[in-house]
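Fold tokens
===========
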Amino acid sequence: MRKTIIAGNWKMNKTVAETKATLSELKELTNGVEGVEIVIGAPFTALESAVKTVEGSNVTIAAQNMHPKDSGAYTGEISPVMLKEIGVKYVILGHSERREYFHESNAFINEKVKAALAHDLIPILCIGEKLEERESGKTSEVNEKQIREGLAGLTPEEAVKVVVAYEPVWAIGTGKTATPEMAEETHKEIRDVLIAMFGAEAASEMTIQYGGSMNAKNAAELLAMENIDGGLVGGASLDAPTFIQVIKAGAR
């Protein structure tokens, strides 16, 4: 039985004080909510405070990125050892913004996935196509390449620990979203690639989130689809009363 995971990616938003305030509110709102794993990707400066703030609740904390090396001369980078030490549980890897603005390759993202697993961090591997790729009929090709290269070298036992987040780049921050049926079709294709790579049993256990502008209005319809196992939520996760609506839509 695979987990339903609703994760909020705060991106470059919220100071330490704002993080504490929002998480304190979310902690109260999620009290008693069951059947869904709740994750918040806070900025690096607020991660330690975030972990402490959510102690004793059903909210867990993710980093938004990390370097694959344990230590070294990588100015400005954060290692998996550093994240593990402060109690971070998840790490978001391969986000479309990292790929586009910082030119991260599938091979580099694969290094990060392996490093996360080696340190008992749960990777949320982001994949997804741009608008021009969708319009030219390359959605399946782009996603399969990102999955195969991003998860290359993993055993089925390792793969089941990875969360895949499908984020159609054309639907992020644009107000556009795929219909539930469109999203389900792509999620099914992703599941088929995972079956080909790791076998049906492992693939059936892997959570595939939808990351294309999920919000309080469309979450229930999207999460009702067979192969949509949660969401990677951007703007709608910044406000606790709004985000709790998305979380409750995923509660089983």
